[in-house]
């Protein structure tokens, strides 16, 4: 009899689709779980028809559970005992597990996939319950048990578990392909990244920096945020695009009230170019209708006009308080509120236009050499790969 639960049972989320899509979902989820498990070298991932199993081996089971809770596509997770197909082993495992629970009512539920097993589900339920009732003060409650002892009788082994926890739900990251996130270093764009990951979209990020008006610390903030986001997507490719020259040209040539509109149009043009190069199918922003001047429907429509790519705005109808709640949950909030300048805030006009007109934006832009400005910015772009499992600095030998 093993002394610690030795396996994690992973159940799939949103698996309403059948056939090829189902297969893709499971394959992608398995690969994503394997990626996370690289940080736990002795664990092994196994795939069955309706489950994925992670064998814990020498790893820390609760750390592994914590990591798996951030993997999209998982409905629930249970830390379980994998035991031989023998009723005594099953009873032992169930008894060991329930003893650790601070409960008084329970119910045993058996799924018997292996019809060769000599006992019927009901007989297994009763045998396990008998032992628990004999040796503890717990009582059976079939309607609202405080703890459910779940037993699965499979073809080669049985699984016994009591603690099922919620997974991150959604779809496995990458199943929908890639999109380019406009990432500011504020609260919203990180939450937009997380919600896009949840729908199965892999994110690449583009950040516009305006040195020397924006500092190294502002850039570091974006790197730190991207690092947190690798909890949900193990690598992020971050493109840091110099934006100072463009902003200077805008400041010289565009009336103050239209500067934000024109600046946003440049951001979208640059993001689209990079998105095409990197085979991204859409852009993502952290905009939410009405939040600031550039986020009115009129403004969004003038900004959209420069691209044919869909712009996803996962926060479009969220209140700021709702966004903050998610930012806290995903671990980005404390970094996002560090007080560093964003390229937008530096050149922010006192009174930006809230209902910009397309023909005016176009007229002001006609004074700028748009193509050259874009090409120069892209040529000077810095690319940083950010990985969850990167060695920490103190691990370095040099
Ligand atoms: P956030 O909290 O994401 O910064 P915000 O509420 O501050 O959003 P804005 O500053 O108006 O809103 O920015 C709206 C969106 O434009 C951001 O969510 C982001 O997608 C994009 N954006 C703004 N500044 C930058 C930047 N420096 N680099 C890349 N994208 C940016
Ligand atoms: Mg911002």
Description:
With 398 residues, the protein is of the alpha/beta class. It has 14 helices and 14 strands. The radius of gyration is 26 Å and the shape is elongated. The two termini are 45 Å apart. Adenosine-5'-triphosphate is lined by residues 182-184, 186-189, 206-208, 267, 285-287, 291-292, 294, 342-344.
Short description:
This protein has 398 residues and is of the alpha/beta class.
Features:
single chain, 398 residues, eight-stranded mixed beta sheet, 14 helices, 39% helix, disordered C terminus, binds adenosine-5'-triphosphate
Tell me the quaternary state: single chain
Low-confidence stretches: 392-398
- Given the helix and strand composition, which structural class is it? alpha/beta
- The SSE order reads EHEEHEHEHEEEEHEHEHHEHEHHHHHE
Roughly how much helix do the residues carry, as a percent range? 25-40%
Please, what is the average pLDDT? Answer: 92
User: DSSP helix count?
Assistant: 14
How is the secondary structure organized here?
Elements: E1 7-12, H1 19-37, E2 44-47, E3 52-55, H2 61-68, E4 74-83, H3 87-99, E5 105-112, H4 121-135, E6 139-140, E7 147-153, E8 158-169, E9 178-182, H5 187-198, E10 202-209, H6 216-229, E11 235-242, H7 244-253, H8 259-277, E12 283-284, H9 297-304, E13 311-312, H10 320-330, H11 333-336, H12 343-346, H13 358-365, H14 370-379, E14 382-387
Parallel strand pairs: 5-6, 5-7, 9-10, 9-12, 10-11, 12-13
Antiparallel strand pairs: 1-3, 1-4, 2-3, 4-8, 7-8, 11-14
The structure holds adenosine-5'-triphosphate and magnesium ion.
């Amino acid at each position: 009899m093993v002394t610690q639960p030795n396996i994690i049972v992973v159940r799939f989320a949103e698996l309403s689709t059948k056939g090829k899509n189902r297969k893709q979902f499971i394959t992608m989820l398995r690969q994503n779980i394997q990626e996370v498990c690289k940080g736990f070298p002795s664990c092994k991932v196994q795939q069955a028809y309706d489950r994925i199993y992670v064998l814990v081996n020498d790893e820390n089971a609760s750390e592994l559970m914590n990591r798996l809770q951030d993997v999209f596509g998982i409905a629930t997770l249970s830390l379980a005992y994998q035991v031989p197909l023998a009723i005594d082993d099953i009873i032992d495992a169930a008894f060991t597990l329930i003893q650790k629970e601070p409960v008084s009512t329970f119910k045993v539920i058996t799924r018997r996939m292996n019809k060769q097993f000599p006992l019927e589900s009901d007989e297994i339920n009763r045998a396990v319950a008998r032992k628990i009732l004999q040796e503890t003060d717990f009582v059976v409650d079939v309607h609202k048990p405080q703890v459910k002892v779940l037993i699965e009788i499979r073809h080669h082994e049985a699984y016994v578990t009591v603690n099922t926890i919620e997974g991150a739900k959604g779809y496995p990251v990458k199943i929908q392909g890639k999109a380019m996130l406009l990432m500011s270093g504020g609260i919203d764009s990180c939450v937009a990244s997380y919600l896009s990951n949840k729908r199965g979209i892999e994110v690449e990020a583009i950040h516009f920096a305006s040195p020397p008006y924006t500092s190294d610390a502002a850039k570091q903030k974006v790197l730190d945020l991207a690092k947190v986001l690798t909890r949900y997507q193990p690598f992020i490719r971050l493109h840091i695009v110099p934006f100072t020259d463009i902003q200077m040209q805008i400041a010289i040539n565009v009336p103050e009230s239209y500067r934000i509109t024109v600046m946003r149009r440049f951001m979208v043009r640059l993001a689209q170019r990079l998105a095409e190069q990197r085979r991204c199918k859409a852009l993502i922003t952290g905009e939410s209708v009405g939040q600031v001047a550039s986020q009115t429907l009129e403004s969004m429509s003038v900004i959209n006009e420069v691209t044919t790519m869909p712009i996803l705005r996962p926060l479009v109808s969220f209140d700021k308080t709702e966004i903050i709640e998610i930012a806290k949950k995903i671990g980005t909030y404390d970094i996002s509120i560090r007080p560093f300048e964003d390229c937008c805030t530096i050149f922010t006009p006192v009174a930006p236009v809230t209902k910009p007109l397309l023909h005016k934006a176009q007229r002001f832009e006609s004074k700028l050499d748009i193509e050259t400005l874009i090409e120069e910015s892209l040529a000077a772009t810095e690319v940083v790969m950010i990985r969850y499992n990167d060695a920490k600095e103190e691990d370095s030998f040099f």
